[in-house]
Design a protein that fits this description.
It contains five helices and 23 strands. By secondary structure, it is α+β, with helices and mostly antiparallel strands. Helix 3 runs antiparallel to helix 4.
């Protein structure tokens, strides 16, 4: 977990902003399809996605997980490797994880028995096909019943075109004293009948990026840290997956700062949002005119814009965000440092004189007092002219 930025603290706010941003502009048409794809037609276009399920079952014995692996047409798949991931949590003994692997029989079924029905144990079931992983969210076993799990395994492809995938994105910027925090969320929508497994898909971030946070998405969908940015990883079967990451860039303490980053392929829509601070302007070249609106939950005001791709437009491969009217660092810090240094030099002067001459004359004392007094007067004048604030004044 990233130690530079407490992502969890802002996660709810970020998701709230996401859905707020979606509501500000009109939604994509219900039959919208990723750019560059032919029309697949039919009333059920884009709705093909049988759901994996995990439920308690009286038919399964206590302490047992019965797993059924099917293809998208509902036919059983034999000889599919299935991992049971058992996680144990204990403060005294420490956490541990065990993986048990079995293969399905001719009926597409496999079972795991003699398992613990305890709050300390949770289980995840994952079916593997090549580099792809298909599974259900982790669960705990009931004491009186077993668990029944059904997982659909799809043909896989590394080609985003073959998988019929489109992506919607959301970018949220927040300001801190010494850095800008950038949070991105992408909704990967697969409308075909194959699972997309991206391969070596690097998104480059600004050269001075730091503090990357990459929480795990649904299943194994996720971003991973890399030296130049983040890598899109995981399995994206038919349906949709939400993935996100955040990073920071240092503030340049100028009125204008630009941030440029790569985007995943097939981004059909991207929205950008930031807090509407006094004098702040948001500019994203090629995007719609920035709007001012009430923030999520009615708190404050935000600036929001978007880019909705149209047929025939070149793919949106990167985005450049420019913030203007940022607060700059004034002279207060330098003034305080200079005054403090002068006072310290006066003290050092007295110390050295005292070591050289054990007896200090009245004239020397008067000179030292005058020097310190001059610096204190300079400090008072800086405070009166509001060149330094009350905190700096008190510290100095």
């Amino acid at each position: 977990m990233n130690r530079f930025f407490p992502f969890e603290k802002f996660q709810k706010r970020f998701l709230c902003c996401l859905f707020f941003g979606i509501s500000v502009f009109s939604e994509l048409p219900a039959n919208a399809q990723p750019l560059g794809h032919p029309n697949i037609g039919g009333s059920n276009a884009g709705t093909f996605s049988p759901k994996n399920t995990s439920t308690t079952s009286a038919k399964a014995s206590p302490g047992t997980i019965e797993v059924e692996i099917l293809n998208p047409q509902g036919q059983p798949l034999a000889d599919v490797e299935v991992d049971l991931i058992s996680s144990f949590q204990s403060i005294a003994q420490g956490p541990r994880e065990e993986i048990t692997t079995k293969s399905t029989d001719s009926s597409g079924k496999v079972s795991f028995s003699d398992l613990q029905a305890s709050l300390r144990y949770d289980y995840a079931v994952v079916a593997k096909q090549g580099d792809a992983h298909f599974g259900v969210p982790s669960f705990r076993l009931a004491k009186s019943q077993g668990q029944s799990v059904r997982i659909y395994v799809y043909p896989t492809t590394n080609s985003i075109s073959d998988a019929f995938v489109g992506i919607r994105g959301f970018l949220y910027l927040t300001q801190r004293e010494d850095f800008l925090n950038v949070e991105l969320m992408f909704r990967v929508m697969s409308l075909g009948r194959k699972a997309w497994v991206p391969k070596n898909l690097l998104l480059q971030l600004p050269k001075d990026f730091q503090g990357v946070d990459v929480p795990l998405g649904e299943g194994d969908a996720r971003f991973e840290r890399a030296s130049e940015g983040v890598i899109l990883k995981g399995t994206y079967p038919p349906g949709q997956r939400d993935i996100r990451f955040s990073f920071m860039v240092p503030r340049n303490h100028r009125e204008t700062q630009m941030i440029q980053m790569d985007l995943p392929p097939r981004v059909a829509e991207l929205r950008g949002l930031t807090e509407a601070l006094p004098g702040l302007e948001l500019d994203v070249p090629g995007f719609e005119k920035v709007q001012r609106s009430q923030g999520p939950g009615g708190e404050g005001t935000v600036l929001i814009t978007r880019k909705l791709m149209r047929p025939g437009e070149a793919e949106l491969k990167s985005v450049l965000v420019e913030l203007r009217g940022l607060p700059t660092r004034g002279p207060e810090r330098w003034i305080a440092t200079l005054v403090a240094a002068l006072i310290a030099l006066a003290g050092l002067f007295l110390l050295l004189r005292n070591k050289t001459h054990q007896q200090i004359s009245d004239g020397e004392r008067q000179t030292a007092r005058s020097l310190i007094l001059e610096e204190l007067v300079a400090l008072e004048n800086a405070r009166t002219e509001r060149k330094i604030g009350p905190k700096t004044y008190q510290k100095t």
